[in-house]
C-alpha cells in the first residue's frame, strides 16, 4: 500500500529514461566516429566509405578503410533547405486555415472542416511519400516547374529545368502538407483562448474583421504561433520516409536550384545502413549513429524551445 | 468606410478561404489516389497468400503489422496509462513537470533516431537481430508518451468531487485510482491508446532497422527472426519497375490508410460519446 505512489512514480520515470538511454547509447556507440571525424563531420561535403576492398589503414589511431571520409554538410543543407521551403509555404497557409476555421467558415461546418484538416496529421508519412512519388513529382516536372520558370524567370533558383521532379521543391511541398496541421491546430487552440472582450472592443472601435484579425488577434497569439512554427520545424527536420521517397537522394552534391536532388539527415540514415555494413571496420555504421545523435540533439533543442513558447501562452483577463 | 479598407477586408477573407481550399485539394487527392488504386489492387489473394518476391499476397505483412503494433501496445499501454495516472494525480511537483515536459520532447524525437538507437542496442549489442521484439519495443518507445499524455488529459477531466467522494467512503489510494477515477476516465484513455495504435500502424522508419522484412508468416520467434509489415511494402515495392509490385504497394497503402482512418473514427466517436 505504501508502495503505491512510489510505484507509479517509478513507472513514470521510464519516459525520461528512454530519452536518456537514447542519448547515452547513441553517444557511446558513435564515440569512436566522433573522435575520428572531428568537426569535419559537420562541415565537409564528402561522404565516402573509402576503398572497402583494400586492406584497412591506420589513421589517427583508428582502423578505417583507405580513403574513408565522413562529412554530412550536404545532408544538413538538404534538411534545412527542404524544411525552410516547407515552413515558407506552411506558415502563411496554416495561419490562413486557422483563421478560416475560427472566423470565416459557416458555423455549422466548422467542426467538420476542422476534422478534415486534422486528417492531414493522420495520414502516415509513407503514404505521403507514395503520393509525392506517384502524383506530385510528375506534377512538379510537367506543370509546376514550367509555370514557375514562366511566371518568375527573374528568380535564378526557379528558372532551372526540373529534370526528374524528385528533389528539393517536391520534398518541401510534401513536408509543407505534413507540418501544416501542427501549425493550424495549435493556432486554433490559442485563438479560442483569447478573451472575447478583445475582439468585441476591436469591432466597437470600428475595425473591420480583417483588421481585428491582423492587428489584434494574431499579435495576441504571437508566442504560441512562434512555438507552433518551431514545433512544425522539428517535425520537418526529422521526417524520414516522405523525404526519402521524393528527394532524389543526392550524395556529395549541394543543391543549386529548387529542383536539385537532395538528401536529408533522417532519409540518409534510413537508406544507408546496408552499404555502411559493408565496411568491416564498423566506422561507417558508427558515423551513421553520429548523424542520428546530431538529429536527436537538434530535435531536443527545437522541441524544448517550442514547448516553452507554447506553454507560456497565458492571457491576462 | 473607405474603399481600400473594404476591399482589404474582403480580400483577406478570400485569402483565408483559399488557404483552406489549397490544403483540402491535395488531401482529397491523396485519399482518392490511394483508395481508388488500392481498391483495384485488392483481391482475395492479397489476404490469403504470402508475398512471393514482388508478387503474391500480403498475408505475412498484415500478420506482421498486427504482431508489431499489438506487441508495442502490450508494452506501451500499461506503462503509458500508469505514467499518465501519476501525472494527473501526483504530477503537480517538479518531477511531474519534468516527466510531462520530457514526454512532449520524446514525441518530437524523429522516429528514425529511435529506430537507429534500437538497431545499435537491441539488434546489435543484445544480438536479437532483426526481430519482432526489437520492432515492437521501438514502436512502444515511440507511442508511450502519447498514451501517457492522453491518459493524463482524460483523468484531469474527472471532477474533484469524484475523488473526494471515494475517499469519504473510506477507499484506499489504489482503490480510488483504479476502481473510481480510471474507470470514470476510460473512454478518454481508450481513445489515447487507439490513437497510439493508429500511429504505430502507420510508422515505417523505426521498423526498417529493427523488424527487417520477411516473405514468410511469423513463426512465433520473438528474436532472431525478421518479420514483415505493411508500410515496408509501400515504400519498397513502389520503387520496383513491375506492375505486380505497384499493385501490392497500393493494396498495402489502402489497408494502412483504411485501418488508420477506422481507428481514428472509432476513437473520436468514443470521445464524443463521453462528452
Description:
The complex is a heterodimer of chains A (317) and B (275). Chain A is mostly helical and 317 residues long. Chain A contains 13 helices and four strands. Chain A has helices spanning 4-12, 14-37, 40-43, 73-104, 110-122, 125-151, 168-193, 196-204, 209-220, 222-238, 241-246, 265-276, 283-311, and strands spanning 47-48, 57-59, 62-64, 69-70. In chain A, the strands form two sheets. In chain A, strands 1-4 form a two-stranded antiparallel sheet. In chain B, β1 and β2 (55-56) form a beta hairpin. Chain B is globular, with a radius of gyration of 23 Å. Helix content of chain B is 77%, strand content 1%. The chains are: A mainly alpha (317), B mainly alpha (275). Chains A and B meet through α1, α2, α4, α5 and α6 of A and α1, α3, α4, α5 and α6 of B.
Topology:
The complex is a heterodimer of chains A (317) and B (275).
Chain A: H1 4-12, H2 14-37, H3 40-43, E1 47-48, E2 57-59, E3 62-64, E4 69-70, H4 73-104, H5 110-122, H6 125-151, H7 168-193, H8 196-204, H9 209-220, H10 222-238, H11 241-246, H12 265-276, H13 283-311
Antiparallel strand pairs in A: 1-4, 2-3
Helix pairs in contact in A: 2-13, 4-7, 4-10, 5-7, 6-7, 7-10, 8-9, 10-13, 12-13
Chain B: H1 3-41, H2 44-48, E1 51-52, E2 55-56, H3 59-90, H4 94-107, H5 111-125, H6 132-156, H7 160-168, H8 173-184, H9 186-202, H10 205-208, H11 230-237, H12 243-274
Antiparallel strand pairs in B: 1-2
Helix pairs in contact in B: 1-12, 3-6, 3-9, 3-11, 4-6, 5-6, 6-9, 7-8, 9-12, 11-12
Amino acid at each position: 500500500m505504501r508502495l503505491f505512489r512510489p510505484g507509479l512514480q517509478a513507472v513514470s520515470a521510464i519516459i525520461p529514461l528512454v530519452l536518456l538511454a537514447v542519448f547515452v547509447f547513441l553517444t557511446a556507440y558513435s564515440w569512436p566516429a566522433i573522435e575520428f571525424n572531428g568537426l569535419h563531420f559537420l562541415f565537409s561535403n564528402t561522404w565516402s566509405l573509402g576503398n572497402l576492398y583494400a586492406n584497412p589503414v591506420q589513421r589517427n589511431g583508428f582502423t578505417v578503410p583507405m580513403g574513408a571520409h565522413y562529412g554530412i554538410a550536404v545532408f544538413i543543407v538538404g534538411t534545412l533547405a527542404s524544411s525552410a521551403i516547407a515552413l515558407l509555404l506552411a506558415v502563411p497557409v496554416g495561419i490562413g486555415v486557422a483563421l478560416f476555421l475560427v472566423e470565416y467558415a459557416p458555423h455549422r461546418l466548422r467542426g467538420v472542416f476542422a476534422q478534415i484538416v486534422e486528417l492531414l496529421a493522420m495520414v502516415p508519412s509513407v503514404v505521403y511519400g507514395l503520393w509525392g512519388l506517384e502524383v506530385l513529382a510528375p506534377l512538379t516536372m510537367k506543370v509546376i516547374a514550367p509555370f514557375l520558370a514562366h511566371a518568375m524567370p527573374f528568380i535564378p533558383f526557379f528558372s532551372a529545368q526540373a529534370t526528374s521532379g524528385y528533389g528539393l521543391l517536391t520534398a518541401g511541398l510534401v513536408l509543407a502538407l505534413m507540418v501544416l496541421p501542427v501549425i493550424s491546430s495549435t493556432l486554433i487552440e490559442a485563438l479560442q483562448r483569447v478573451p472575447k472582450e478583445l475582439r468585441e472592443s476591436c469591432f466597437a472601435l470600428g475595425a473591420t474583421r480583417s483588421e481585428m484579425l491582423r492587428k489584434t488577434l494574431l499579435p495576441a497569439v504571437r508566442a504560441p504561433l512562434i512555438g507552433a512554427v518551431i514545433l512544425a520545424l522539428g517535425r520537418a527536420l526529422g521526417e524520414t520516409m516522405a523525404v526519402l521517397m521524393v528527394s532524389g537522394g543526392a550524395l556529395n552534391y549541394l543543391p543549386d536550384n529548387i529542383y536539385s536532388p537532395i538528401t536529408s539527415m533522417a532519409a540518409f540514415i534510413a537508406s544507408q545502413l546496408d552499404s555502411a555494413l559493408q565496411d568491416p571496420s564498423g566506422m561507417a555504421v558508427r558515423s551513421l549513429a553520429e548523424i542520428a545523435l546530431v538529429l536527436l540533439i537538434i530535435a531536443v533543442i527545437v522541441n524544448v524551445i517550442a514547448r516553452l513558447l507554447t506553454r507560456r501562452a497565458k492571457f491576462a483577463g | 468606410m473607405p474603399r481600400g479598407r473594404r476591399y482589404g477586408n474582403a480580400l483577406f477573407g478570400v485569402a483565408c478561404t483559399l488557404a483552406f481550399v489549397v490544403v483540402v485539394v491535395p488531401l482529397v487527392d491523396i485519399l482518392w489516389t490511394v483508395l481508388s488504386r488500392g481498391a483495384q489492387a485488392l483481391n482475395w489473394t492479397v489476404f490469403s497468400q504470402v508475398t512471393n518476391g514482388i508478387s503474391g499476397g500480403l498475408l505475412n505483412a498484415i500478420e506482421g503489422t498486427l504482431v508489431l503494433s499489438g506487441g508495442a501496445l502490450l508494452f506501451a499501454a500499461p506503462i503509458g496509462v500508469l505514467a499518465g495516472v501519476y501525472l494527473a494525480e501526483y504530477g503537480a511537483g517538479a518531477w511531474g513537470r519534468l516527466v510531462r515536459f520530457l514526454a512532449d520532447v520524446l514525441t518530437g524525437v524523429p522516429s528514425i533516431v529511435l529506430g537507429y538507437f534500437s538497431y545499435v542496442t537491441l539488434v546489435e549489442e543484445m544480438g536479437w537481430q532483426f526481430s519482432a521484439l526489437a520492432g515492437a519495443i521501438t514502436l512502444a518507445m515511440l507511442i508511450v508518451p502519447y498514451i501517457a499524455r492522453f491518459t493524463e488529459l482524460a483523468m484531469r477531466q474527472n471532477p474533484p468531487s469524484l475523488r473526494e467522494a471515494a475517499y469519504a467512503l473510506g477507499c484506499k489510494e489504489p482503490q480510488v485510482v483504479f476502481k473510481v477515477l480510471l474507470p470514470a476516465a476510460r473512454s478518454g484513455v481508450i481513445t489515447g491508446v487507439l490513437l497510439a495504435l493508429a500511429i504505430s500502424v502507420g510508422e515505417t522508419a523505426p521498423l526498417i532497422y529493427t523488424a527487417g522484412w520477411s516473405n514468410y508468416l511469423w513463426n512465433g520467434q520473438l528474436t532472431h527472426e525478421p518479420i514483415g509489415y505493411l508500410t515496408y511494402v509501400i515504400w519498397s515495392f513502389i520503387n520496383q519497375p513491375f506492375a505486380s509490385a505497384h499493385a501490392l504497394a497500393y493494396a498495402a497503402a489502402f489497408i494502412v490508410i483504411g485501418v488508420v482512418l477506422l481507428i481514428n473514427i472509432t476513437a473520436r466517436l468514443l470521445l464524443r460519446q463521453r462528452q
